Model the fold of this input.
Amino acid sequence: MQQRSNSLLICLLLGCCAAGAQQFNEKANLQPVTATGFYSINMSPHLSSYIAVDFRDLRITDGKNKFIPYLVISKQPSFPRHQYDKLPIVRHELNDNGRSVLIIKNERRIQISSVALLIRNAAVNRNATISGSDDSLHWFIITENINLKEQTVAEADRYIQTIEFPTSSYTFFKIVIDNRRNNPLNVIEARSYTDQEQVQTNPYVVDPSPSFIQTDSSDNNTYIKVHQNAAYHINRIALQIENPGFYERNVDIINTSGTTGFTIRSGSNSRFDLPTFNDTSWFIKIYNGDNPPLKINSITLEQEMKKIITYLQAGNTYHLLMHDAAAIKPVYDLQQFKDSIPKILPQLEIGSFEKIDIKSSAVKNKLFISSAWLWPLIIVVLVTLGFITYRLTKEMNKETG
Done:
């Protein structure tokens, strides 16, 4: 029993010493933080080349080497989402000149660049002007000579007339419609609508161009060895093929994660989305069958746009630690509150990259034991071992005596 205790303590000591030797190899210095709050750091191809595909070896630290929680968010495609706000009509009358005067109120003082008027069907043309005011007394022109074109809707007795103008946030908007002394338009309602999100059709960033060697083998297959100069993350591969006419071939992407199969055919994009990998060298295999091989003119590699989100304090200096094969992916509470983080954040740039000198650097992973208390631990273990040895020797003397 005593010998087992000795062995356990020795293993603990050796394990602590080995853990203390673990080290991040790369460092990226962040620009100074001028205001406390959430920040976004874009994941560039260069930055990704130092980080594992699951981000297990990425840490953010402050000037005291304290780890700062973060989360990684993908920039998924977004599409415009129209939000409609009803604008109360506070005045609607016909003046002595036969012009319709429509005053609507922007109660929330939001920025508006268009107004949608719901109008009863009318096959006529009108001109209009729009002005803005914050007190409904003093008016300022926004735009004029607006042509309200003839519109009708067969399925209903009303239609929507949209008036666009420079973005404004006045409390009141006045629309004057020139009826040319004819009967006025029957305006039922006024609304504003805004696009809440911008369209992002390609949420990918292009990696530096790889080199490749194409070999058309006698086994009726084409083998392409692809090489990239650094371990950039890859989510998408696009092949530019010299058009030989009609073709349809099976393709395998072969890397350390395994083999992923696709089909390429004439008339469609030869583009493949696949799980993230970061091999510097990997292969593409094209099954030609009895057909002549295809000629690959170029290969484009892309990675999904990602951003690192973190909360930083003004006046502190921060940097990223990366590239540690022994690191374990951290779990932060911040992940549970990602829906509460503002969608628009200030972007923090990377000032410089540098390689960490393992021999002289004092920066250690928080998961590992710091040298500040490694020696006290060694002393405690040695004292414990001495006490156990003393007890064991005393018991052995009793047995032999």
Notes: Confidence is low (pLDDT under 50) at residues 1-21, 362-371. Residues 1-22+368-401 form one domain. The chain has four domains: 1-22+368-401, 23-77+306-367, 82-195, 204-304.
